[in-house]
């Protein structure tokens, strides 16, 4: 048998370093004691059972789901047109436009959050789920654009021309050719942008006012030690759901790029 | 074929910034003919096709289809349909839905079904209705693209390098099939190709393009026998080019002094309109005779030495180096006896019938595409 090379050992060490802390979350969520420390006192599912009884938590969950859904639709719809333009056309200021769209990836969240709060207050918009959604759309747009750009990259432009040639106008072509062909990319974009919004804390903290999203609610609960195991249980569920969403998104993205178009 | 013009291009020009993709294109296409636009890549032939289809607007001039000016008419309202180079088969639709695409919502469903079946049988894909777009071979994709365009009953079918994605055997088979299809339907086909053999075997007429200009429009036989200049002569088949001087011109005949071969009287080529005293003449490789001894029955002969032999199967090509002529002269001999008669270094004689010397007019400097 071949001896594992240093590189393989390094890779495993890297992965453990990266994911071990995260693994403590589900581990302690089954701990019957309320103090998060070894040794584990005993195993229980109580924390999961009690989740359903907490009305404010459920409300926060609904807030997050709603914000995530609207954000995903807005960012993906805007990203769809931007991505098509970036791939299909060559225009003046294209590089600058693409750079600007990608900018939210690198601006510190706290800067975006505080400047958005100032802006919204200036416009007379009180912090609410609406302002959170607007902020999240801004953050999610670069994800949508980059996923959809790769979907359009593999999309033969003559497909759209063939549709015009066969008598269809711009809108009919978009509906009958463009949308179905990039559909897997659209689904991938919706899933990813939803996840971006669902997990986001800083913007939501600044912009949500008295309508907390789930991450904001969790943060507020961490101050109460008795509630902590509950939060761990919730966190474990979210962790699992997010991972599943990303796997699903990857699947759709791959389908959109490996298909022989 | 009738004398009616189905497409007329009048002084068509397409300019991209300072780049002239096509200029001064005047062309009448007759109802029911198979017309090819032939030229090297980048010569503007695809631009002309796309302007007829409506994907690009000419920057100058007019395009008329069936007598109607197409200015401002978008591709989806033109009586033309196109077979794309990539075939552009919709990947999310099966064969039947691909073919039916242009009829959906415009024609009753029962009629669509009947026309799809008819179209698929026409391109010999009968029964493949449910086959997915990604389960098709290259040849089948091409047939689907043909059926999808022809089902629209266009006045003109446009084909953009329709055979370039196929392997050689299939390409030759499809050449005959498409030619037969075109003749039985009586629809005008306009094909863009860079393959001279494809253009020669399929077309009624060919337009040869270089650097955005239409150099010559003629039947394949005329293009081969009377090309208008050196570029066309060398693009259609192989051609030996020799410099010559005109000594006298009388009644459609030229007395010339040709390099190597000496004085002869040849026919003046009406297609070669660029005239001067110093001209060039062309000789097809298969028009030359190659002999070991000086041939007696040829009016013009030349002594040389074999510099290269290429065996093609049905033909053998010899390159013969001749004193005072820069380039070796190419000679093509049919392979009757399955032997290579001469080897590299052999001294040989070339014999020539005067009738096979083609006047190509004044040598033109390699044309620079006009830029402003």
From TrEMBL, chain B:
Keywords: ATP-binding, Cell membrane, Membrane, Nucleotide-binding, Translocase, Transport. Pfam families: ABC_tran, TOBE_2. One of its GO terms (molecular function) is ATP binding. PROSITE patterns: ABC_TRANSPORTER_1, ABC_TRANSPORTER_2. It catalyses: ATP + H2O + polyamine-[polyamine-binding protein]Side 1 = ADP + phosphate + polyamineSide 2 + [polyamine-binding protein]Side 1. Residues 7-236 form the ABC transporter domain. SUPFAM superfamilies: MOP-like, P-loop containing nucleoside triphosphate hydrolases. Its EC number is 7.6.2.11. Belongs to the ABC transporter superfamily. Spermidine/putrescine importer (TC 3.A.1.11.1) family. NCBIfam families: potA. The complex is composed of two ATP-binding proteins (PotA), two transmembrane proteins (PotB and PotC) and a solute-binding protein (PotD). Part of the ABC transporter complex PotABCD involved in spermidine/putrescine import. Responsible for energy coupling to the transport system. This is Spermidine/putrescine import ATP-binding protein PotA.
């Amino acid at each position: 048998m071949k001896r594992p090379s240093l590189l393989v050992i390094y890779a495993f060490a890297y992965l453990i370093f990266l994911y071990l802390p995260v693994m403590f979350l589900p581990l302690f969520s089954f701990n019957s004691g309320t103090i998060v420390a070894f040794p584990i006192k005993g195993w229980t599912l109580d924390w999961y059972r009690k989740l359903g009884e907490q009305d404010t938590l459920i409300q926060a969950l609904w807030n997050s789901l709603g914000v995530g859904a609207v954000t995903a639709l807005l960012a993906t719809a805007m990203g769809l047109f931007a991505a098509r333009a970036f791939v299909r056309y060559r225009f003046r200021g294209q590089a600058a436009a693409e750079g600007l769209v990608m900018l939210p990836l690198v601006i510190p969240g706290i800067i975006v959050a505080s400047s958005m709060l100032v802006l919204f207050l200036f416009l007379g918009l009180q912090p609410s789920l609406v302002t959170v959604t607007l902020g999240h759309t801004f953050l999610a747009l670069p994800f949508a654009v980059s996923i959809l750009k790769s979907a359009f990259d593999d999309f033969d432009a003559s497909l759209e021309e063939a549709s015009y040639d066969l008598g269809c106008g711009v809108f009919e072509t978009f509906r009958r050719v463009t949308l179905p062909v990039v559909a897997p990319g659209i689904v991938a974009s919706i899933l990813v942008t939803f996840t971006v919004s669902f997990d986001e804390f800083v913007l939501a903290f600044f912009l949500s006012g008295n309508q907390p999203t789930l991450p904001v609610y969790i943060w507020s609960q961490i101050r109460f030690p008795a509630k902590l195991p509950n939060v761990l249980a919730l966190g474990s569920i979210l962790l699992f759901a997010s991972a599943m969403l990303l796997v699903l998104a990857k699947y759709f993205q791959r389908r959109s790029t490996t298909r022989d178009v | 074929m009738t004398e009616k013009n189905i497409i007329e291009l009048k002084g068509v020009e397409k300019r991209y910034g300072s780049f002239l993709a096509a200029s001064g294109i005047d062309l009448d296409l007759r109802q029911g003919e198979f017309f090819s636009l032939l030229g090297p890549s980048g010569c503007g032939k695809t631009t002309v096709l796309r302007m007829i289809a409506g994907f690009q607007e000419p920057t100058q001039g007019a395009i008329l289809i069936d007598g109607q000016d197409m200015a401002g008419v978008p591709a989806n309202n033109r009586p033309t349909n196109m077979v794309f180079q990539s075939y552009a088969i919709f990947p999310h639709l099966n064969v039947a839905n691909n073919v039916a695409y242009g009829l959906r919502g415009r024609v009753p469903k029962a009629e669509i079904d009947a026309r799809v079946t008819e179209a698929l049988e026409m391109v010999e894909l009968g029964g493949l209705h449910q086959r997915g777009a990604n389960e098709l071979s290259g040849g089948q994709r091409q047939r689907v693209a043909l059926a999808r365009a022809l089902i629209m009953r266009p006045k003109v079918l446009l084909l953009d390098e329709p055979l370039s994605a196929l392997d050689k055997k299939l390409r030759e088979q499809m050449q005959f099939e498409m030619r037969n299809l075109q003749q039985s339907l009586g629809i005008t086909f306009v094909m863009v190709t860079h393959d001279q053999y494809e253009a020669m075997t399929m077309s009624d007429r060919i337009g040869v393009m270089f650097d955005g200009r239409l150099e010559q429009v003629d039947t394949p036989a005329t293009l081969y026998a009377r090309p208008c200049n050196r570029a066309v002569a060398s693009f259609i088949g192989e051609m030996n080019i020799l410099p010559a001087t005109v000594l006298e011109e009388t009644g459609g005949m030229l007395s010339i002094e040709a390099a190597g071969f000496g004085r002869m009287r040849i026919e003046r080529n009406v297609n070669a309109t660029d005239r001067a005293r110093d001209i060039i003449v062309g000789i097809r490789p298969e028009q030359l005779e190659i002999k070991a001894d000086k041939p007696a029955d040829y009016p013009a002969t030349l002594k040389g030495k074999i510099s290269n032999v290429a065996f093609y199967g049905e033909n053998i090509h010899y390159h013969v180096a001749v004193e005072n002529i820069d380039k070796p002269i190419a000679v093509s001999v049919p392979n009757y006896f399955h032997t290579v008669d001469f080897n590299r270094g052999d001294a040989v004689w070339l014999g020539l019938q005067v009738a096979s010397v083609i006047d190509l007019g004044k040598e033109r400097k390699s044309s620079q595409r006009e830029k402003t």
